[in-house]
Amino acid sequence: MRTAFAKSMLLPIDEILPELLGSLSTFSNVVLHAPPGAGKTTRVPLALLDLIPAEAGRIIMLEPRRLAALSAAKWMSQTLGEEMGGKIGYSIRFDSKLSAATRIEVMTEGILTRKIQDDPILEGVAVVIFDEFHERSIHADLGLALCLEMQRLVRPDLKILVMSATLDSAAIAKLLGDAPVISSPGRSFPVEEIYLENQTHGALHLRAADAVARALSETAGDLLVFLPGAGEIRSTAALLRNSIPAEKGISVHQLYGDLPFDQQQSAILPGKERKVVLATNIAETSLTIEGVRVVIDSGLSRRLRHDQASGLNRLITTRESRSSAEQRKGRAGRVAPGICYRLYSRHTFSAMTPHTSPEILETDLAPLMLELAAWGTTDPNELLWLDPPPEASTAVAAKLLFELEAVDQSGKITASGKKMARLPLHPRLAGMLLQAGKIGCIAVGCDLAALLSERDIVQRTQSGDRNTARVDLPERLELLRKWRLNGRADAVIDIAAVKVVVRVADQLLRFFSASPAKTNAEPEQIKRLLLTAYPDRVARLRDPEGNRYLLSSGRGAIQKAVTGVRNAEFVIALHVNAGEQGECEIHQAVSISEELLRSELGEKIEEKKNISWDAKEGRVVAVKEEHIGAIKLSSKTLVPSPDDVVPLLLTAVRESSLKLLTLDEPLRQLQGRILLLRSVLMSEFWPDFSDAGLLESLDKWLAPHIFKFRTASELEKLDISSLLTASFDYRSKQALDELAPTHLIVPSGSRVRIDYTAGEQPVLPVKLQELFGLGETPAVAGGRVKLLLHLLSPAGRPIQVTQDLKGFWDGSYHQVKKELKGRYPKHPWPDDPWSAQPTRRVKNPKVKSG
Question: What is the sign of the dihedral through the CA atoms of 798, 803, 807 and 810?
Fold first, then answer.
């Protein structure tokens, strides 16, 4: 290999290769830290050929992206003077070039997971290299976790090399069992930073185009412009193509993941013209673009973030991290001194987060959880992670996998789940293909999976919008079928995209040994398949405007006009964005009938009895409802059982603080009598009939009497006093009447009611003429509590309140007599009340009044 290196330009990584090879010969795991441009991707695997004999096994190197994998394989093959597929091969999704002679296999990270699942001991593999690990893709984290588990259990001879440009080397070294860290100094030229602080406002594509124009006039060399996404790239490219004269010899290239491979290659390979490359973060570290001397950084990136609350993904534009900003800047200093124009201020740079958050903390974990289930673990914490997957996200993913029937209730993989894990698709689409096989439309299923997983085949307008308002998913299927039949493109078709979709669909068909569909897909077939993939995305219309829906998850959603579906009662929401706040946004949907929904998801429909108290109507409302998730399908009135109704009524009474009952005077009197005995006798023999006590014991005294009740009016008619009194046995009733009688026979013979509701002391309101001759104040509670006498005038008005009747006769009576005798001459006012005959009448002929 040294001969091969000698034929090419020396790179910084060459200086530390002997140390790296020595460490790998001694240790199982090694960490290599090398900045971008050091040459680690193309040099290290080739150097390992001197250390790892062919009989020991292959060297596998993982790359985060297909373009990076293909570029690395190509460069190493050229270094050896060979064609790809010889000593150097590659494996990417739906494509590979390998042979028996292959010693180094460059693959994308997801391919390693599939390889490990197929061969849990990685037979014939000696070394696994994780390149660009600092990008922290979920596939790299999972692949490393599985390799470490394999190394611990069955492959102690397997060597692991983690290579990174900016990773926290100490943390990864600790994860790898205190592995040695080898550092390469790298080689970079100084890069001047220019903050375009006066260009921080306005549309991004306009600011980017202005910065490109300035850089072209002030600098030499190719330009690399970092923009957050494909939309901004296309808009900026359109501006530049209109503003840069053809005779200037400047070419504008786009570089993002959805582009056809030949266009991506054109962007990174050297050319005769000065290049302006408009790229996403795909060009930060894993690709080398020859000739770049100028970087223009927007400071933004676009990331797919999983919203745990809704279980949906949300594509957000966010500030890049400082480490990413430095990576982008470094691209200008690979071959000579360069310049980095930043479309933001120094203050913005300082406020950036230090590092980019790992994908495992933000994305949909359903694919990862399915892989773990296939590996045989239901608990991610059983493996070693640099950052463990969040519990909330794994719970959401596990719930989806259960709905897809990929795992059982305990989280163990099912037979269907094992088949789904073997397909290079999201579990949703993998499950859909299994269903397609069952119902005899596998070709339709493969086309659907390709359309849903790959770049949209509907081309964009000049403004960047898709012509989607009149092209729904079934129509896309038809466009795809026509393309296959005659190779002619409809006006709305993106030819490059449809070629990719056809290639992916054909690869999937080969999995099932099937042929492409030649006839139109049946609409019912399409919808049945989509219901299999998206059982949690059923939505029902909830307003007359025709664009507001309720998802089965319980989230509200607004259907965008681009879906092409209007006023459908039920839809499957295929593309849903969680939105910045509030309701979700449905960007792609297919209408379905309730009949189809019931036939396909019948086992997910739950019958619920909804029995509630309607406080406004004052009655129990009982209905039997059918639900699929949060969506109500039907509602019928039912006759509830007493066991359902009584708890509701008790709760309603409790929440009303007894106001639903008639709290009349007899009840209040009874409460006063009992309260008096409880407080005076200090005995728990007497129940607590206070309002608080009654509320606490509703189930004991009220529940037995309301089994047939349904309304507030029925509750109002209850005689609560009688209900409570009826709970006493004969002896208790006798004791109550004796100790706290409701009435008292006074000297006149009248039976006068005692008022127990006036306060702590019971009151006896009685005309004073009826008490003549009585000296002892009457008492209750076995003589322990004197009654508070309200002595009344002949007109029934209180003229004295006292508990000292004797004192009244001897004292204030005479003043009362003087004041009232003239006013009530027909009533007796004796000079000596002690000897007077008590009376209810107006005159007493036996006694002369004085």
Answer: positive
Q: Is 298 helix (H, G, I), strand (E, B) or coil?
A: coil
Residue with tokens 């000049």: 462
- CA 784 to chain centroid, in Å, comes to 67
Distance separating alpha carbons of residues 771 and 769, to the nearest angstrom = 5
Closest to 659 measured CA to CA, from 703, 627, 617, 615: 615
Task: Give the Cα separation of 642 and 655 in Å (integer).
Answer: 20
Per-residue CA distances from 350 to 272, 322, 324, 397, 628 (Å): 38, 8, 13, 36, 49
Residues whose CB falls within 8 Å of the CB of residue 65, separated by 6 or more in sequence, listed in order: 108, 257, 282, 286, 287
Pairing of strands 274-279, 222-226: parallel
Nearest to 796 by CA among 836, 768, 775: 768
Rounded to an integer, what distance in angstroms lies between the CA atom of residue 112 and that of residue 116? 6
Using pLDDT thresholds of 50, 70 and 90, give the confidence band for residue 268. confident
Query: How is domain 191-361 classified at the CATH fold level?
Result: Rossmann fold (3.40.50)
Q: What is the torsional sign of CA 759, 761, 762, 763?
A: negative
Beta-bridge partner residues of 159: 127
Tokens of 669: 């009197």
Q: What is the CA radius of gyration of the chain?
A: 44
DSSP state for residue 830 in the 8-state scheme: -
Long-range contacts of 258-263 (CB under 8 A, 24+ apart): 258/230, 258/455, 258/497, 259/496, 260/496, 260/499, 260/500, 261/66, 261/67, 261/70, 263/496
pLDDT tens digit sequence for 757-781: 988 899 999 999 999 999 999 999 9
Q: In degrees to the nearest 10, what's the CA dihedral of 463, 468, 470, 474?
A: 160
* Percentage of the chain exceeding pLDDT 90: 65
- What does each C-alpha distance from 764 to 754, 791, 798 come to in angstroms? 5, 8, 11
Confidence of residue 415 (pLDDT cuts 50, 70, 90): very high
For the chain, what percent of residues have pLDDT higher than 70?
94
Q: CB-based contacts of 102: which residues, under 8 Å, 6+ apart?
A: 58, 85, 86, 87, 88, 89
Residue pair 514/522 in contact (Cβ under 8 Å)? The answer is no
Entry pTM? 0.75
Residue 337: C-alpha distances to residues 66, 132, 366, 428 (Å): 30, 24, 45, 49
pLDDT digits (tens, 9 = 90+) for 461-504: 544 444 444 577 888 888 888 888 887 666 678 887 888 889 89
Look at residues 409, 312, 406, 414 and name the one whose alpha carbon lies nearest to residue 367. Answer: 406
Give me the CATH code for the 366-526 domain, please.
1.20.120.1080
Q: 3-class DSSP state for residue 286?
A: coil
Tokens at residue 529, please?
Answer: 């398949």
In sign, the C-alpha dihedral spanning 65, 66, 68, 73 is positive
User: In this predicted model, what pLDDT tens digit does every residue of 544-583 receive, in sequence order?
Assistant: 777 899 999 888 998 887 666 778 899 999 888 876 667 8
Nearest CA-CA partner of 167 in 21, 61, 301, 32: 32
The domain made up of 2-183 has a fold known as Rossmann fold (3.40.50)
| SS3 label, residue 92 | strand
**Residue 21, CA distances (Å) to 17, 31, 106 in order:** 6, 12, 19
Concatenate the DSSP letters of all residues of 204-237 into one string: HHHHHHHHHHHHHHH--SEEEEE-SSHHHHHHHH
| Contact by Cβ (8 Å): 734, 750 | no
Residue 541 near residue 569, CB atoms below 8 Å: yes
Mean pLDDT for 310-317 is 66
